[in-house]
Automatic annotation (TrEMBL):
<feature type="signal peptide">
    <location>
        <begin position="1"/>
        <end position="18"/>
    </location>
</feature>
<feature type="coiled-coil region">
    <location>
        <begin position="69"/>
        <end position="152"/>
    </location>
</feature>
<keyword id="KW-0175">Coiled coil</keyword>
<protein>
    <recommendedName>
        <fullName>DUF4124 domain-containing protein</fullName>
    </recommendedName>
</protein>
<keyword id="KW-0732">Signal</keyword>
Amino acid sequence: MIRSVIFLLFLFSLSSHAKTIVNYYKCVTERGTVYSQFPCGSNGTQHILTNTDPSAGVPSEQHYKTLNRLEKKQLVRNLKNKIRAKKHEAAILTRERDRATRDQQQRVNRIMDDKERNNTLKDIKQQLKDINKTYHQQARTLSKKIAQLEKRLKRYE
């Protein structure tokens, strides 16, 4: 009798480790999404959660393939975000250059005598030359970075 009870307990303990199935309910309300182990209304949907034995073997190739695919997707997404950020940075740089150029050109429109006007024009030409020089340097580096990012993106796509 004792042997049969011990055998049954041993049998039940083995079957409980193999697979566990749990039902839960997902309800969407005005306040958000609620998960419950009990039905929660007409808008609730039932889902099944299945747990298996953690010591069970998983095919390693599939696991690595899945991880590699997810990592590749993440790399592509991050590269696209970086490219978009660099293009946005280039647009901001262009706007700043245009604003600085406009400010320098407005200096010419002020009323002043000829000598002061000539000195101001020389200063404005120098300022515009400096503005364009720094703009082209920064734009060149940004375009190189964008080209590098796009090259890396092509490798992953």
